[in-house]
């Protein structure tokens, strides 16, 4: 097993002398297309070479292993996530933009979820994103280990919700039916067990529950959870300011003065 710290980003770049026509950027984009279509298990250097109309030798000139290719692909799609700069927006709005952007990226590229934590995420796109995230949270009043905990809390909400959503979506596609059709097929069983679980059955019959589209449920659930997390962080900041008596601190949720 490869050393966790052995990253494609920490090795010196190969000299450009004798570089083949195929660029690393072309290879990574083609790999992402293959990953989006078939997931990490569907990616191989042989299949990627066939997709590009190039031999594996050309690929290995740029990328030593499949693991290196996955690192490059993860960083490339992370570049799709926008994090506002400090002063452009209140911190809560900035964090919401970042979290929703990360969620959208993971839904477009669900294979990324399985790669998180397996190798260092230290590519240029991730580091730019991290730099802006730290600046945004620092300006809000978080620092030290607390800032790390806050960032982990937000990303855990994003990753947790998208993991479930993508898994259900994949199951629905495998079934060849819509989510509404699958729900209807379970209705006889749910009716049969209603007397055993009366509170759950009552809730399922409430207005607005049974008629909600799955996409609407996912969107609302994610937004509700994110807002409650931010509410709690706002309250924590206010309590910290009150405890320290720091009257120079700005009220939570306001942008820093430039």
* Percent range of helical residues: 55-70%
Low-confidence segments, given as residue ranges, are 247-258
* CATH class value of the largest domain: Mainly Alpha
CATH-defined superfamily of the largest domain: Tetracycline Repressor, domain 2
Q: What's the CATH architecture name of the largest domain?
A: Orthogonal Bundle
CATH topology of the largest domain: Tetracycline Repressor, domain 2
> How many E-type strands?
0
Major pleated sheet? none
What fraction of residues sit in β-strands? under 5%
Category from helices, strands and their pairing? mainly alpha
| Mean model confidence by pLDDT | 87
Q: Strand-and-helix sequence, N→C?
A: HHHHHHHHHH
Condensed summary:
By secondary structure, the protein is an all-alpha fold. The protein has helices at residues 24-38, 45-52, 56-62, 66-78, 91-108, 124-140, 144-175, 179-192, 198-204, 214-244. The chain contains ten helices and no strands.
Features:
258 residues; mainly alpha; Arc Repressor Mutant, subunit A; Tetracycline Repressor, domain 2; 2 domains; 10 helices; 63% helix; 0% strand; flat; disordered C terminus
Could you characterize what this model shows?
The protein has about 260 residues and is mainly α. It has helices at about 25-40, 45-50, 55-60, 65-80, 90-110, 125-140, 145-175, 180-190, 200-205, 215-245. The chain is built from ten helices and no strands. Helix 1 (about 25-40) packs across helix 4, helix 5 runs antiparallel to helix 6 and helix 5 (about 90-110) runs parallel beside helix 7. The protein is flat, with a radius of gyration of 23 Å.
């Amino acid at each position: 097993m490869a050393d966790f710290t052995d990253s494609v980003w920490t090795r010196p770049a190969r000299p450009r002398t004798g570089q083949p026509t195929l660029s690393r950027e072309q290879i990574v984009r083609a790999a992402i297309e293959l990953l989006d279509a078939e997931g990490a298990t569907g990616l191989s250097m042989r299949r990627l070479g066939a997709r590009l109309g190039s031999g594996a030798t050309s690929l290995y000139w740029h990328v030593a292993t499949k693991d290196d290719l996955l690192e490059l692909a993860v960083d490339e799609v992370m570049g799709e996530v926008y994090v506002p700069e400090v002063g452009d927006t209140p911190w809560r709005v900035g964090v919401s933009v970042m979290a929703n952007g990360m969620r959208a990226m993971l839904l477009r590229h669900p294979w990324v979820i399985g790669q998180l934590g397996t190798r260092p995420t230290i590519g240029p796109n991730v580091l730019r994103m991290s730099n802006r995230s730290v600046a945004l949270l620092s300006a809000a009043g978080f620092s030290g280990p607390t800032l790390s905990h806050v960032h982990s809390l937000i990303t855990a909400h994003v990753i947790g919700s998208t993991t479930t959503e993508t898994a259900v979506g994949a199951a629905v596609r495998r079934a060849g039916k819509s989510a509404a059709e699958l729900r209807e097929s379970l209705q006889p069983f749910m009716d049969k067990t209603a007397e055993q679980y009366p509170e759950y059955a009552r809730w399922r019959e409430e207005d607005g529950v049974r008629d909600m589209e799955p996409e609407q449920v996912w969107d609302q659930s994610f937004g509700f959870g994110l807002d409650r997390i931010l509410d709690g962080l706002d309250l924590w900041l206010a309590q910290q300011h009150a405890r320290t008596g720091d009257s120079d601190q700005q009220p939570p949720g306001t942008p820093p003065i430039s």
